[in-house]
C-alpha cells in the first residue's frame, strides 16, 4: 500500500528525508539544486518563500489553482509565497530521463532589498502582474553554472558576494521584462484582493493567518477586521468548520483513507485531525463508514 503524503513545505523540508536535496543557505535566499532521474515524479509543495525556478534539463509541470504551467529546458517561472502547487518533474528521455533545475526561495527581506536597488516606485498599479513561463539566455545560464561548485564546497562560498550577484541578476532580467519587474514588486505587497475568494481558494492548504493576510493584500490587523465584518467569526473557527465539513463529505462520498483525507483537508497530524473530527461530530472519522 502506498502511504498517503502531505504537502511538502519548501524549502525547509527539501534537505530532509526522503528528498535530501543540496541546499545553500544565504541571507534572505535559499538555493536548491535538483539533479535526478525523473520518469514522472509528483508531489504537492507549499511555498513558504517566494519561488524562482530555472529548469536546466527536462520538464517541470506546475499546477496552481486551475492553471497549468509547463517549464521546459532553459525556461523559468516566478511564484509568490504562501500557495500550494502540484509539481511534476519529467526527465529528458533522450538523456536517460535526466532532470536538472535550480530553485531560489526568496524571503521578503531580500525582495525589499531588490525593490530598494531597483528604485521603481512609478510601477505601482492596482492590476495583478501575470505569472508566465519565460526563456532565459546565456548570461543567466552562466550565472547558474557559477553557483553549482558551491554545493560541493559550501564552506568556500562568499555569501555576501553571491547575494549581491543575485540582486544584480534579478534586476537584469526584470529590466528586460516589465511584467516580471511588476511581479517582483508585488511579491512584497500583494494587490488588495477579495477576502472571500482568498479563503475559498486556500482553506484546505496549510496556511497561517499571516499567509492569508499577505495573500489578501492586507496587514494582519486589517485582515482580521475585514474578515470579521464579512463572516462574523474569527478565521480559525471558520477554517475549522469548512475543513470538517469537507472531511465529512470526503468520508461519505469517496474511498479515500482517513490519512489521505487528513492531508487533503489541510491537516498534518492524523491524531489531531481525528480528535478534532470527534469533537465536532461525536465520532472518529473511521467510524463514519
UniProtKB/TrEMBL annotation:
One of its GO terms (molecular function) is DNA-binding transcription factor activity. PROSITE patterns: HTH_ARAC_FAMILY_2. The lineage of its organism: Bacteria, Pseudomonadati, Bacteroidota, Flavobacteriia, Flavobacteriales. Gene3D superfamilies: Homeodomain-like. Residues 193-289 form the HTH araC/xylS-type domain. It holds the Pfam family ExsA_N. Keywords: DNA-binding, Transcription, Transcription regulation. This is AraC family transcriptional regulator. The keyword Transcription applies. Coiled coil: none annotated. PANTHER family: ARAC-FAMILY TRANSCRIPTIONAL REGULATOR, HTH-TYPE TRANSCRIPTIONAL REGULATOR EXSA.
Amino acid at each position: 500500500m502506498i502511504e498517503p503524503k502531505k504537502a511538502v513545505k519548501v524549502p525547509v523540508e527539501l534537505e530532509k528525508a526522503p528528498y535530501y536535496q543540496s541546499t545553500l543557505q544565504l541571507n534572505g535566499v535559499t538555493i536548491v539544486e535538483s539533479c535526478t532521474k525523473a520518469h514522472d515524479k509528483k508531489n504537492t509543495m507549499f511555498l513558504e518563500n517566494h519561488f524562482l525556478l530555472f529548469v536546466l534539463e527536462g520538464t517541470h509541470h506546475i499546477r496552481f489553482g486551475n492553471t497549468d504551467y509547463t517549464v521546459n529546458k532553459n525556461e523559468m517561472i516566478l511564484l509568490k509565497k504562501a500557495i500550494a502547487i502540484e509539481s511534476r518533474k519529467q526527465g529528458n528521455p533522450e538523456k536517460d530521463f535526466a532532470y536538472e533545475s535550480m530553485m531560489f526561495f526568496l524571503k521578503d527581506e531580500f525582495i525589499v532589498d531588490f525593490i530598494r536597488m531597483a528604485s521603481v516606485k512609478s510601477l505601482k498599479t492596482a492590476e495583478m502582474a501575470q505569472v508566465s513561463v519565460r526563456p532565459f539566455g546565456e548570461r543567466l545560464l552562466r550565472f547558474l553554472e557559477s553557483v553549482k561548485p558551491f554545493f560541493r564546497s559550501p564552506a568556500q562560498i562568499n555569501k555576501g558576494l553571491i547575494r549581491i550577484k543575485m540582486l544584480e541578476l534579478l534586476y537584469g532580467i526584470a529590466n528586460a521584462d516589465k511584467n516580471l519587474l511588476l511581479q517582483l514588486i508585488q511579491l512584497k505587497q500583494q494587490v488588495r484582493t477579495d477576502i472571500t475568494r482568498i479563503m475559498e481558494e486556500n482553506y484546505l492548504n496549510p496556511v497561517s493567518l499571516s499567509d492569508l493576510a499577505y495573500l489578501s493584500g492586507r496587514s494582519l490587523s486589517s485582515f482580521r477586521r475585514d474578515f470579521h465584518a464579512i463572516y462574523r467569526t474569527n478565521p480559525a473557527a471558520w477554517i475549522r468548520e469548512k475543513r470538517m465539513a469537507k472531511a465529512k463529505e470526503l468520508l461519505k462520498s469517496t474511498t479515500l483513507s482517513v490519512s489521505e483525507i487528513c492531508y487533503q483537508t489541510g491537516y498534518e497530524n492524523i491524531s489531531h485531525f481525528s480528535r478534532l473530527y470527534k469533537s465536532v461530530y461525536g465520532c472518529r472519522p473511521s467510524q463514519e463508514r
